[in-house]
Design goal:
The protein has about 350 residues and is α/β, with parallel strands linked by helices. Helix content is about 40%, strand content about 15%. Helix 5 packs across helix 6 and helix 9 runs parallel beside helix 11. The chain is globular, with a radius of gyration of 19 Å.
């Protein structure tokens, strides 16, 4: 075998015991979980905004971003529920490049998975303890979910993972919303099949255990655009796209028809400033159509302290080291603009 087994990592239970949440933190998360799930069930008409850096690279700028977001969230709390993006592991198209804080808690040092596990748990704990934010992360590795299960209020299954059996079955055992992105080729049937799998009960293997899941009624679609046969970015956030998705949802018989629209990735062609226009376009579509208003539960926006992304060798505090993000001033203005138009 060509794999070198470096060391046995502690199991999630051990890490949780070493870095425990307080009773107050658990209560805050439970309240936020309920409020977010109520939106997906149609019991609440609040709008969900999942917003934050493309990747959490260093704790300090992420927490500075979250401290600013807390002040804004309090001002729009009558209309919106803000869920910070703290994405601690990154899928890479070719496998090369920065794979996130889980792999490299210091992006310029060599990978250290043990330090990474501790770093991502501490970052999510800081957000919850100090700012009352239970956050969103991508479930890139299903077997790692339990290291953060007492801290997260939302998980996303990425475009490259959405057809994977283990991701779908693990999502079926979560009690928080799991967003299933449309695959990179754009087939909506693949995405909705993933939602169906996640909403169903299964018996499967997880971390060496035979487990039975109840099914996750909060599993839902995420529209993020796609690549056509020639590798061009094609968007799928438009009025007609959302009506088509609603028709597919009705035909599928799935519970709680819902979509979160990702304003970046192939919807923007990774042109991060386009997120402002796209977000406003989606709000306009919701206001023009009761069907779309009922279906679109929120947006996903990539945003950080500084506009754009930095290149190798740069050290700009709060500027993305992966995909370009919307800077803070533009993000803050956009949040207030969205709240005003809801």
């Amino acid at each position: 075998m060509s794999m070198n087994f470096q060391r046995k990592l502690p199991i999630p239970q051990e890490v949780k015991q070493e870095f425990p949440v307080t009773e107050r933190m658990a209560q805050v998360k439970a309240q936020r979980d309920r409020a977010i799930c109520d939106v997906f069930e149609g019991k609440s008409d609040k709008f969900i905004l999942i917003i934050g850096p493309c990747s959490a690279d260093h704790s300090e700028p992420v927490l500075e971003y979250i401290s600013r977001l807390r002040k804004v969230a309090d001002q729009v709390s009558d209309k919106m529920i803000i869920v910070p993006r703290i994405y601690t592991n990154k899928p890479r198209t070719t496998g090369a490049g920065y794979k996130g804080m889980l792999h490299q808690p210091d992006p310029e040092a060599k990978p250290d998975m043990y330090k990474g596990l501790i770093a991502i748990r501490e970052l999510h704990m800081d957000a919850l303890r100090d700012y009352d934010f239970s956050c969103a992360d991508e479930m890139l590795y299903p077997e790692n979910y339990r290291y953060l299960s007492d801290l997260l209020s939302y998980v996303a299954i990425g475009a490259r993972s959405v057809e994977n059996q283990q991701h779908r079955l693990t999502a079926s055992g979560l009690d928080i919303p799991a967003g299933m992105k449309n695959p990179t080729g754009g087939e909506l049937s693949v995405m909705l099949n993933a939602v169906k799998a996640a909403q169903s009960s299964h018996t499967f293997l997880y971390r060496g255990w035979e487990v039975v899941s109840d099914g996750n009624p909060y599993a839902h679609a995420i529209m993020r655009g796609y690549l056509d046969f020639a590798g061009r970015s094609i968007s799928n956030y438009h009025y007609e796209d959302l009506l088509q998705l609603n028709d597919l949802y009705i035909a599928s018989g799935l519970k709680n028809p819902s979509v979160i629209v990702d304003t970046n990735h192939n919807n923007s062609g990774k042109k991060y400033l386009e997120q402002i226009r796209i977000a406003k376009d989606i709000i306009h579509s919701r206001n023009a159509s009761p069907i779309i208003k009922g279906l679109v539960k929120g947006l996903m926006i990539e945003s950080y302290l500084e506009d754009g992304a930095q290149g190798a060798g740069e050290h700009v505090f709060g500027k993305s080291i992966t995909d370009p993000c919307l800077g803070w001033e533009k993000s803050e203005r956009l949040i207030f603009d969205i709240a005003e138009k809801l």
